[in-house]
Amino acid sequence: MYALEARHAPVVSLWVWYHVGGRNEVPGTTGMSHFLEHMLFKGTPAHPKGDIDRLLARYGALWNAFTSEDVTCYFETVPRDRYATALELEADRMRNAAISLEETEAERNVIVSEREGLENDASFLLGEQLQAVAFSRHPYGQGVIGSKDEIKLMTREGLYAHYRRHYAPNNAYVIVAGDSGADELLERAAAAFGPLDAETPTEPPKAPEPPQYGEKRVIVRRSGGALPIIQIAHHSPRATDGRAAALTALSVALAGATAGGGESASGRSSRLYRALIDTGLATDVDASYTLMKDPYLFVVEATLRPGSTHENVERVIQEELTRIAREPLSDEEFARVRRQMLSASAFMTDTITWRAFRAGQLLATGAARSLGEWYEKTAAVTAEDVRAAAESIFHEKSRTVGWFVPES
Predict the structure, then answer these.
(1) Counting beta carbons within 10 angstroms of the beta carbon of residue 116, is it exposed (0 to 12), middle (13 to 18) or buried (19 or more)?
(2) Checking DSSP bridges between strand 399-407 and strand 216-223, what pairing results, if any?
(3) Could you read off the pLDDT of 264-304 as tens digits, one per residue?
(4) What is the DSSP string of 169-201?
(5) Measuring CA to CA, which of 8, 159, 215, 246 is 20 to 30 A from 376?
(6) Would the pLDDT of 65 be above 80?
(7) pTM of the predicted model over 0.90
Protein backbone atom coordinates (compact mmCIF):
# COMPACT_ATOMS: atom_id res chain seq x y z
CA MET A 1 0.00 0.00 0.00
CA TYR A 2 1.13 3.52 -0.78
CA ALA A 3 -0.43 6.83 0.22
CA LEU A 4 0.11 10.46 -0.79
CA GLU A 5 -1.14 13.48 1.07
CA ALA A 6 -2.60 15.88 -1.53
CA ARG A 7 -4.43 18.96 -0.34
CA HIS A 8 -5.56 20.15 -3.79
CA ALA A 9 -9.25 19.61 -3.05
CA PRO A 10 -11.45 17.83 -0.46
CA VAL A 11 -11.34 14.51 -2.34
CA VAL A 12 -9.59 11.13 -2.16
CA SER A 13 -8.53 8.99 -5.12
CA LEU A 14 -8.33 5.23 -4.49
CA TRP A 15 -6.63 2.93 -7.03
CA VAL A 16 -6.37 -0.86 -6.85
CA TRP A 17 -3.74 -2.31 -9.21
CA TYR A 18 -3.95 -6.09 -9.74
CA HIS A 19 -0.89 -7.81 -11.13
CA VAL A 20 -2.79 -9.55 -13.91
CA GLY A 21 -3.15 -8.62 -17.56
CA GLY A 22 -2.39 -9.90 -21.03
CA ARG A 23 1.02 -11.21 -19.93
CA ASN A 24 -0.71 -13.70 -17.58
CA GLU A 25 -2.72 -15.39 -20.32
CA VAL A 26 -1.96 -18.34 -22.57
CA PRO A 27 -3.30 -19.11 -26.06
CA GLY A 28 -6.94 -20.02 -25.74
CA THR A 29 -7.52 -17.53 -22.92
CA THR A 30 -6.35 -14.26 -24.50
CA GLY A 31 -8.56 -11.38 -23.44
CA MET A 32 -9.64 -13.08 -20.19
CA SER A 33 -8.28 -10.33 -17.91
CA HIS A 34 -10.07 -7.66 -19.94
CA PHE A 35 -13.31 -9.70 -19.97
CA LEU A 36 -13.02 -10.10 -16.19
CA GLU A 37 -12.59 -6.34 -15.76
CA HIS A 38 -16.04 -5.89 -17.30
CA MET A 39 -17.51 -8.52 -15.00
CA LEU A 40 -16.30 -6.74 -11.85
CA PHE A 41 -18.97 -4.10 -12.49
CA LYS A 42 -21.76 -6.70 -12.32
CA GLY A 43 -22.04 -6.55 -8.55
CA THR A 44 -21.54 -8.68 -5.45
CA PRO A 45 -24.05 -10.20 -2.97
CA ALA A 46 -23.68 -7.06 -0.84
CA HIS A 47 -23.90 -4.70 -3.82
CA PRO A 48 -26.13 -6.12 -6.56
CA LYS A 49 -25.72 -5.12 -10.21
CA GLY A 50 -25.93 -1.34 -10.66
CA ASP A 51 -25.46 -0.54 -6.98
CA ILE A 52 -21.79 0.48 -7.34
CA ASP A 53 -22.57 2.89 -10.17
CA ARG A 54 -25.58 4.37 -8.37
CA LEU A 55 -23.66 4.92 -5.13
CA LEU A 56 -20.69 6.56 -6.82
CA ALA A 57 -22.84 8.71 -9.08
CA ARG A 58 -24.82 9.91 -6.07
CA TYR A 59 -21.60 11.17 -4.48
CA GLY A 60 -20.39 12.88 -7.65
CA ALA A 61 -17.47 10.48 -7.94
CA LEU A 62 -15.16 9.79 -10.88
CA TRP A 63 -14.60 6.06 -11.43
CA ASN A 64 -13.45 3.64 -14.08
CA ALA A 65 -11.12 0.71 -14.81
CA PHE A 66 -8.64 -0.45 -17.44
CA THR A 67 -6.65 -3.52 -18.42
CA SER A 68 -3.18 -3.53 -19.94
CA GLU A 69 -0.61 -6.18 -20.76
CA ASP A 70 0.71 -5.93 -17.17
CA VAL A 71 -2.18 -4.98 -14.88
CA THR A 72 -5.90 -4.57 -14.31
CA CYS A 73 -6.77 -1.41 -12.41
CA TYR A 74 -9.88 0.06 -10.75
CA PHE A 75 -10.24 3.52 -9.28
CA GLU A 76 -12.64 5.95 -7.63
CA THR A 77 -12.08 9.61 -6.87
CA VAL A 78 -14.65 10.53 -4.22
CA PRO A 79 -15.40 13.33 -1.74
CA ARG A 80 -13.14 12.97 1.29
CA ASP A 81 -16.01 11.95 3.57
CA ARG A 82 -16.87 9.06 1.17
CA TYR A 83 -13.43 7.46 1.29
CA ALA A 84 -14.83 4.69 3.52
CA THR A 85 -17.42 3.89 0.84
CA ALA A 86 -14.77 3.56 -1.87
CA LEU A 87 -12.71 1.28 0.36
CA GLU A 88 -15.70 -0.90 1.17
CA LEU A 89 -16.70 -1.24 -2.49
CA GLU A 90 -13.21 -2.22 -3.66
CA ALA A 91 -12.55 -4.61 -0.77
CA ASP A 92 -15.92 -6.25 -1.40
CA ARG A 93 -15.40 -6.90 -5.09
CA MET A 94 -11.80 -8.01 -4.56
CA ARG A 95 -13.13 -11.32 -3.20
CA ASN A 96 -16.92 -11.41 -3.64
CA ALA A 97 -17.70 -10.61 -7.28
CA ALA A 98 -20.88 -12.25 -8.57
CA ILE A 99 -19.79 -13.67 -11.92
CA SER A 100 -22.97 -15.29 -13.17
CA LEU A 101 -23.53 -17.30 -16.36
CA GLU A 102 -26.27 -14.89 -17.48
CA GLU A 103 -24.10 -11.80 -17.07
CA THR A 104 -21.15 -13.53 -18.75
CA GLU A 105 -23.23 -14.20 -21.86
CA ALA A 106 -24.60 -10.65 -21.92
CA GLU A 107 -21.18 -9.05 -21.52
CA ARG A 108 -19.67 -11.29 -24.20
CA ASN A 109 -21.71 -9.46 -26.82
CA VAL A 110 -20.53 -6.10 -25.47
CA ILE A 111 -16.87 -7.14 -25.69
CA VAL A 112 -17.25 -8.60 -29.18
CA SER A 113 -18.74 -5.25 -30.24
CA GLU A 114 -15.83 -3.44 -28.57
CA ARG A 115 -13.42 -5.67 -30.47
CA GLU A 116 -15.15 -4.99 -33.78
CA GLY A 117 -15.04 -1.26 -33.11
CA LEU A 118 -11.29 -1.39 -32.52
CA GLU A 119 -10.82 -3.27 -35.78
CA ASN A 120 -12.15 -0.18 -37.57
CA ASP A 121 -9.18 1.78 -36.21
CA ALA A 122 -6.30 1.36 -38.64
CA SER A 123 -3.69 2.26 -36.01
CA PHE A 124 -5.01 -0.41 -33.61
CA LEU A 125 -5.24 -3.02 -36.35
CA LEU A 126 -1.67 -2.43 -37.50
CA GLY A 127 -0.35 -2.16 -33.94
CA GLU A 128 -1.91 -5.48 -32.96
CA GLN A 129 -0.30 -7.24 -35.91
CA LEU A 130 3.04 -5.51 -35.32
CA GLN A 131 3.02 -6.61 -31.67
CA ALA A 132 2.20 -10.19 -32.63
CA VAL A 133 5.09 -10.29 -35.11
CA ALA A 134 7.60 -8.54 -32.81
CA PHE A 135 7.14 -11.11 -30.01
CA SER A 136 7.68 -14.76 -30.89
CA ARG A 137 7.46 -16.18 -27.33
CA HIS A 138 6.51 -13.58 -24.73
CA PRO A 139 2.75 -13.15 -24.06
CA TYR A 140 3.08 -9.43 -24.85
CA GLY A 141 2.54 -10.55 -28.42
CA GLN A 142 -1.07 -11.44 -27.59
CA GLY A 143 -2.18 -7.91 -26.72
CA VAL A 144 -4.99 -7.23 -24.25
CA ILE A 145 -8.50 -7.56 -25.67
CA GLY A 146 -8.01 -11.01 -27.19
CA SER A 147 -9.18 -12.49 -30.47
CA LYS A 148 -12.86 -12.48 -31.34
CA ASP A 149 -12.95 -16.28 -31.47
CA GLU A 150 -11.44 -16.63 -27.99
CA ILE A 151 -13.82 -14.01 -26.57
CA LYS A 152 -16.69 -16.10 -27.92
CA LEU A 153 -15.28 -19.26 -26.30
CA MET A 154 -14.70 -17.74 -22.84
CA THR A 155 -16.59 -19.62 -20.09
CA ARG A 156 -18.01 -18.43 -16.80
CA GLU A 157 -15.99 -21.12 -15.01
CA GLY A 158 -12.77 -19.98 -16.64
CA LEU A 159 -13.41 -16.35 -15.75
CA TYR A 160 -14.22 -17.23 -12.14
CA ALA A 161 -11.07 -19.34 -11.77
CA HIS A 162 -9.02 -16.45 -13.20
CA TYR A 163 -10.69 -14.11 -10.71
CA ARG A 164 -10.04 -16.29 -7.66
CA ARG A 165 -6.43 -16.86 -8.68
CA HIS A 166 -5.46 -13.22 -9.23
CA TYR A 167 -7.84 -10.99 -7.25
CA ALA A 168 -6.39 -11.07 -3.75
CA PRO A 169 -4.66 -8.55 -1.46
CA ASN A 170 -1.26 -10.21 -1.93
CA ASN A 171 -1.50 -9.69 -5.71
CA ALA A 172 -2.44 -6.01 -5.67
CA TYR A 173 -1.12 -2.53 -5.01
CA VAL A 174 -3.51 -0.17 -3.22
CA ILE A 175 -2.62 3.44 -4.01
CA VAL A 176 -4.45 6.35 -2.42
CA ALA A 177 -3.97 10.10 -2.67
CA GLY A 178 -6.13 12.70 -1.03
CA ASP A 179 -7.00 15.42 1.40
CA SER A 180 -5.87 13.63 4.57
CA GLY A 181 -2.59 12.66 6.18
CA ALA A 182 -0.79 9.78 4.48
CA ASP A 183 -0.74 7.72 7.69
CA GLU A 184 -4.49 8.07 8.13
CA LEU A 185 -5.17 7.11 4.51
CA LEU A 186 -2.97 4.03 4.89
CA GLU A 187 -4.48 2.96 8.20
CA ARG A 188 -8.01 3.04 6.82
CA ALA A 189 -6.97 1.15 3.67
CA ALA A 190 -5.19 -1.50 5.76
CA ALA A 191 -8.31 -1.92 7.89
CA ALA A 192 -10.43 -2.52 4.77
CA PHE A 193 -8.13 -4.89 2.87
CA GLY A 194 -6.14 -6.47 5.70
CA PRO A 195 -8.80 -9.02 6.78
CA LEU A 196 -9.21 -10.41 3.24
CA ASP A 197 -7.84 -13.88 2.52
CA ALA A 198 -4.66 -14.14 0.49
CA GLU A 199 -4.21 -16.55 -2.42
CA THR A 200 -1.26 -18.72 -3.34
CA PRO A 201 1.16 -16.36 -5.13
CA THR A 202 0.86 -16.67 -8.90
CA GLU A 203 3.86 -17.60 -10.99
CA PRO A 204 5.12 -14.88 -13.34
CA PRO A 205 5.10 -15.67 -17.07
CA LYS A 206 7.85 -18.10 -18.01
CA ALA A 207 8.31 -17.16 -21.65
CA PRO A 208 11.18 -14.67 -21.92
CA GLU A 209 11.52 -13.23 -25.40
CA PRO A 210 14.61 -14.60 -27.19
CA PRO A 211 16.92 -12.27 -29.10
CA GLN A 212 15.73 -11.15 -32.52
CA TYR A 213 18.26 -11.80 -35.28
CA GLY A 214 16.89 -9.75 -38.11
CA GLU A 215 14.29 -7.21 -39.16
CA LYS A 216 10.68 -8.38 -39.30
CA ARG A 217 7.95 -6.87 -41.49
CA VAL A 218 4.17 -6.98 -41.63
CA ILE A 219 1.71 -5.41 -44.07
CA VAL A 220 -1.96 -4.97 -43.20
CA ARG A 221 -4.37 -4.26 -46.04
CA ARG A 222 -7.97 -3.24 -45.44
CA SER A 223 -10.65 -1.27 -47.21
CA GLY A 224 -12.04 1.91 -45.72
CA GLY A 225 -11.33 5.60 -45.52
CA ALA A 226 -8.21 5.41 -43.36
CA LEU A 227 -4.94 7.01 -44.43
CA PRO A 228 -1.79 4.89 -44.84
CA ILE A 229 0.20 4.36 -41.63
CA ILE A 230 3.71 3.22 -40.84
CA GLN A 231 4.87 1.87 -37.47
CA ILE A 232 8.47 1.06 -36.60
CA ALA A 233 9.13 -0.81 -33.35
CA HIS A 234 12.43 -1.67 -31.67
CA HIS A 235 12.73 -3.98 -28.68
CA SER A 236 13.40 -1.88 -25.59
CA PRO A 237 14.18 -2.56 -21.91
CA ARG A 238 11.78 -2.91 -19.01
CA ALA A 239 10.87 -0.09 -16.63
CA THR A 240 13.45 -1.14 -14.03
CA ASP A 241 16.31 -0.73 -16.51
CA GLY A 242 18.72 2.14 -15.94
CA ARG A 243 17.93 3.49 -19.42
CA ALA A 244 14.20 3.94 -18.78
CA ALA A 245 14.35 7.66 -17.99
CA ALA A 246 16.65 8.34 -20.95
CA LEU A 247 14.31 6.45 -23.28
CA THR A 248 11.45 8.60 -22.02
CA ALA A 249 13.52 11.66 -22.93
CA LEU A 250 14.29 10.08 -26.30
CA SER A 251 10.57 9.83 -27.10
CA VAL A 252 10.21 13.52 -26.25
CA ALA A 253 13.13 14.49 -28.48
CA LEU A 254 11.65 12.56 -31.38
CA ALA A 255 7.98 13.53 -31.10
CA GLY A 256 7.36 15.93 -28.20
CA ALA A 257 5.74 15.63 -24.79
CA THR A 258 2.18 15.54 -23.56
CA ALA A 259 0.80 15.62 -20.04
CA GLY A 260 -2.08 13.27 -20.77
CA GLY A 261 -1.03 9.63 -20.68
CA GLY A 262 2.74 9.92 -20.55
CA GLU A 263 5.66 11.58 -22.27
CA SER A 264 4.83 10.73 -25.90
CA ALA A 265 2.97 12.86 -28.42
CA SER A 266 3.42 15.35 -31.23
CA GLY A 267 5.45 18.51 -30.69
CA ARG A 268 6.28 21.15 -33.27
CA SER A 269 9.91 21.44 -32.22
CA SER A 270 10.58 17.68 -32.22
CA ARG A 271 12.80 15.85 -34.69
CA LEU A 272 10.09 13.81 -36.40
CA TYR A 273 7.61 16.69 -36.57
CA ARG A 274 10.14 18.79 -38.48
CA ALA A 275 11.20 15.89 -40.70
CA LEU A 276 7.73 14.57 -41.56
CA ILE A 277 4.98 17.10 -40.88
CA ASP A 278 6.77 20.34 -41.75
CA THR A 279 7.86 18.75 -45.03
CA GLY A 280 4.36 17.58 -45.91
CA LEU A 281 5.10 13.86 -45.74
CA ALA A 282 2.80 13.05 -42.79
CA THR A 283 -0.23 14.41 -40.99
CA ASP A 284 0.63 13.00 -37.56
CA VAL A 285 3.63 11.46 -35.83
CA ASP A 286 4.18 9.83 -32.45
CA ALA A 287 7.03 8.16 -30.56
CA SER A 288 6.44 6.20 -27.38
CA TYR A 289 8.43 4.35 -24.78
CA THR A 290 6.08 2.63 -22.31
CA LEU A 291 7.01 1.66 -18.76
CA MET A 292 6.44 -2.11 -18.63
CA LYS A 293 7.29 -5.01 -16.31
CA ASP A 294 9.17 -6.89 -19.04
CA PRO A 295 11.13 -5.68 -22.08
CA TYR A 296 8.68 -4.20 -24.56
CA LEU A 297 8.81 -1.91 -27.63
CA PHE A 298 9.83 1.64 -28.51
CA VAL A 299 7.35 2.56 -31.26
CA VAL A 300 7.38 5.32 -33.85
CA GLU A 301 4.15 5.84 -35.81
CA ALA A 302 3.38 8.20 -38.69
CA THR A 303 0.14 8.77 -40.60
CA LEU A 304 1.00 9.48 -44.22
CA ARG A 305 -0.29 12.52 -46.09
CA PRO A 306 -2.06 11.65 -49.39
CA GLY A 307 0.59 11.33 -52.06
CA SER A 308 3.35 10.19 -49.68
CA THR A 309 4.78 6.70 -49.98
CA HIS A 310 5.57 4.22 -47.24
CA GLU A 311 9.07 3.80 -48.64
CA ASN A 312 9.89 7.50 -48.45
CA VAL A 313 8.44 8.04 -44.96
CA GLU A 314 10.19 4.95 -43.63
CA ARG A 315 13.50 6.18 -45.07
CA VAL A 316 13.13 9.58 -43.37
CA ILE A 317 12.26 7.98 -40.00
CA GLN A 318 15.22 5.63 -40.19
CA GLU A 319 17.53 8.54 -41.00
CA GLU A 320 16.31 10.44 -37.93
CA LEU A 321 16.69 7.42 -35.65
CA THR A 322 20.22 6.83 -36.93
CA ARG A 323 21.14 10.50 -36.51
CA ILE A 324 19.90 10.76 -32.91
CA ALA A 325 21.83 7.57 -32.03
CA ARG A 326 25.08 9.00 -33.42
CA GLU A 327 25.04 12.65 -32.39
CA PRO A 328 24.12 14.00 -28.93
CA LEU A 329 21.41 16.65 -28.86
CA SER A 330 22.69 20.21 -28.92
CA ASP A 331 22.62 22.12 -25.65
CA GLU A 332 19.66 24.19 -26.87
CA GLU A 333 17.66 21.19 -28.07
CA PHE A 334 18.35 19.15 -24.96
CA ALA A 335 17.31 22.05 -22.72
CA ARG A 336 14.02 22.22 -24.59
CA VAL A 337 13.49 18.44 -24.37
CA ARG A 338 14.31 18.40 -20.66
CA ARG A 339 11.94 21.29 -20.00
CA GLN A 340 9.12 19.60 -21.93
CA MET A 341 9.65 16.26 -20.20
CA LEU A 342 9.76 17.64 -16.68
CA SER A 343 6.82 19.98 -17.31
CA ALA A 344 4.70 17.14 -18.67
CA SER A 345 5.65 14.91 -15.75
CA ALA A 346 4.73 17.61 -13.23
CA PHE A 347 1.54 18.62 -15.01
CA MET A 348 0.14 15.11 -15.23
CA THR A 349 0.42 14.77 -11.45
CA ASP A 350 -1.25 18.11 -10.79
CA THR A 351 -4.65 16.55 -10.06
CA ILE A 352 -5.19 14.07 -7.25
CA THR A 353 -6.54 11.42 -9.64
CA TRP A 354 -3.57 11.58 -12.01
CA ARG A 355 -1.11 11.77 -9.12
CA ALA A 356 -2.45 8.50 -7.72
CA PHE A 357 -2.39 6.92 -11.20
CA ARG A 358 1.22 7.90 -11.84
CA ALA A 359 2.35 6.63 -8.44
CA GLY A 360 0.65 3.31 -9.11
CA GLN A 361 2.15 3.01 -12.57
CA LEU A 362 5.67 3.59 -11.25
CA LEU A 363 5.25 1.13 -8.39
CA ALA A 364 3.49 -1.57 -10.41
CA THR A 365 6.18 -1.61 -13.11
CA GLY A 366 9.10 -1.07 -10.74
CA ALA A 367 10.18 2.13 -12.50
CA ALA A 368 10.51 4.02 -9.21
CA ARG A 369 9.46 3.79 -5.57
CA SER A 370 7.85 7.23 -5.55
CA LEU A 371 6.93 10.19 -7.73
CA GLY A 372 9.91 12.06 -6.35
CA GLU A 373 12.35 9.30 -7.24
CA TRP A 374 11.09 9.18 -10.84
CA TYR A 375 11.34 12.96 -11.13
CA GLU A 376 14.93 12.79 -9.92
CA LYS A 377 15.75 10.07 -12.45
CA THR A 378 14.35 12.08 -15.34
CA ALA A 379 15.98 15.29 -14.12
CA ALA A 380 19.38 13.53 -14.03
CA VAL A 381 19.25 12.46 -17.72
CA THR A 382 21.93 14.03 -19.92
CA ALA A 383 22.12 14.57 -23.68
CA GLU A 384 24.71 11.79 -23.88
CA ASP A 385 22.35 9.46 -21.96
CA VAL A 386 19.70 10.07 -24.62
CA ARG A 387 22.13 9.36 -27.46
CA ALA A 388 23.46 6.22 -25.76
CA ALA A 389 19.93 4.94 -25.10
CA ALA A 390 19.05 5.45 -28.77
CA GLU A 391 22.23 3.69 -29.87
CA SER A 392 21.43 0.73 -27.59
CA ILE A 393 18.02 -0.02 -29.14
CA PHE A 394 17.93 1.33 -32.71
CA HIS A 395 19.35 -1.71 -34.50
CA GLU A 396 18.13 -3.42 -37.66
CA LYS A 397 18.19 -6.79 -35.92
CA SER A 398 15.72 -5.68 -33.23
CA ARG A 399 13.40 -3.81 -35.60
CA THR A 400 9.87 -4.67 -36.69
CA VAL A 401 8.25 -2.55 -39.41
CA GLY A 402 4.52 -2.41 -40.11
CA TRP A 403 2.66 -0.80 -43.01
CA PHE A 404 -1.08 -0.18 -43.14
CA VAL A 405 -2.14 -0.02 -46.78
CA PRO A 406 -5.75 1.07 -47.42
CA GLU A 407 -7.56 -0.80 -50.16
CA SER A 408 -10.14 0.84 -52.36
Answers:
(1) exposed
(2) parallel
(3) 444 778 899 999 999 999 999 999 999 999 999 999 999 99
(4) GGGEEEEEEESS-HHHHHHHHHHHHTTSPP-PP
(5) 8
(6) yes
(7) yes
Kind and range of the H or E run holding 310: helix 310-326
Cα 129 from Cα 152, distance rounded (Å): 20
- CB neighbour list of residue 38: distance below 8 Å, 6 or more residues apart: 107, 110, 111
Closest CA relative to residue 299, chosen from 390, 233, 203: 233
Q: What residues contact residue 187 under an 8 Å CB cut-off, 6+ apart?
A: none
Q: What does each C-alpha distance from 41 to 30, 83, 103, 121, 251 come to in angstroms?
A: 20, 19, 10, 26, 36
- The identity of residue 108, as a single letter, is R
Task: Considering the domain delimited by 2-193, tell me its CATH architecture.
Answer: 2-Layer Sandwich (3.30)
Residues of the chain with CATH 3.30.830.10: 2-193, 216-407
Whole-angstrom distance, CA of residue 12 vs CA of residue 86? 9
